[in-house]
Design brief:
Elements: E1 8-13, E2 19-25, E3 28-35, H1 41-56, E4 65-69, H2 75-92, E5 96-99, H3 101-112, E6 119-127, E7 130-143, E8 146-152, E9 157-159, H4 164-167, H5 170-178, E10 186-189, H6 193-203, E11 209-211, H7 220-232, H8 251-266
Parallel strand pairs: 1-4, 4-5, 6-10, 10-11
Antiparallel strand pairs: 1-2, 2-3, 6-7, 7-8, 7-9
Length: about 270
């Protein structure tokens, strides 16, 4: 039995344009609140947490776990979410864990739109005509009330859509096999799905490719909470990795790198 099946989980997601918080109790999402009002996430996060807990008549001290989206996404949003989660954890003595947004998206798709054996491609818009992506296969499980889980078979990567299949490396064979097995499907999820759909339909039969409908377009705090619960396993081990997952250099670092390499090339 997972030690958090009957525990309140506070989940945070501040890596995109919209931010959200969710409160779960095991497999049940009690509440999810989001905002996209043009103001910084730092102005909204703590007030929305307080508001949500107030609606449920709960306190921060009632939480048994804090889960946070650690990226990829906007750098300031990633850092804000992790700093807030870590600060609450240390102040209140609550365990904290980081969840990759692509993993959360894939787990959500596995629960809501997939069947055993499907291949999931989680794809998020990375701007600059690129997408963040990772490849997963749906497997049966019986952990914390879950019947299915998404198991990652590739590294996290950032690519242009036409580079997608070549970038997945070890997942390329898995994708090719999936399109030849009748009932197995390639399920695309995330706000970058439409950008890569033509690439997959050109390689595989369109009948084998499915775009997962909303709400799986973006991870969201509830999906972060479900992914955290899924990762604990029967023994209730807590992965504490709250390291930011940037995948790509920020604009400032990229500019600094190009200036540095340009200087080296002159010598």
């Amino acid at each position: 039995m997972n030690r958090f099946e009957d525990t309140h989980i506070l989940a945070l997601d501040t890596v995109g344009e919209a931010g959200s918080i969710a409160v779960l109790k095991g497999m049940k999402c009690l509440l999810e609140l989001s905002w996209q009002n043009g103001t910084p996430h730092s102005s909204n996060l703590l007030p929305v947490i307080r508001s949500g807990l107030g609606v449920l008549r709960l306190e921060l001290q009632d939480m048994g776990l804090i889960a946070v989206n650690r990226g990829p996404g906007r750098w300031t949003g990633i850092r804000l979410g992790i700093a807030t989660a870590m600060g609450l954890s240390m102040a209140l003595g609550i365990p904290v864990t980081g969840v990759a947004g692509l993993d959360a998206l894939a787990q959500w798709a596995a629960l809501s739109a997939c069947r055993h054996g499907d291949v999931i491609l989680a794809v998020l818009d990375a701007r600059r005509s690129q997408v963040y992506t990772a490849c997963y296969e749906v497997e049966a499980c019986n952990t914390a009330g879950f019947r299915r889980r998404a198991v990652r078979y590739s590294d996290y990567s950032v690519v242009q859509p036409h580079e997608l299949l070549n970038s997945l490396k070890t997942s390329k064979e898995l994708l090719q096999a999936s399109a030849n097995l009748g009932q197995r499907r390639i399920v695309l999820c995330g706000d970058g799905a439409e950008a890569v759909l033509p690439v997959l339909e050109a390689r595989f039969s369109p009948s084998n490719v499915l775009v997962c409908a909303p709400p799986a377009f973006l991870p969201g705090a509830a999906a972060v909470g479900y992914a955290a619960l899924q990762e604990y396993g029967p023994g209730g081990m807590i992965p504490r990795d709250c390291t930011p997952l940037y995948i790509r250099l920020s604009d400032a670092e990229a500019n600094k790198y190009h200036k540095t390499t340009k200087g080296f090339n002159k010598e």
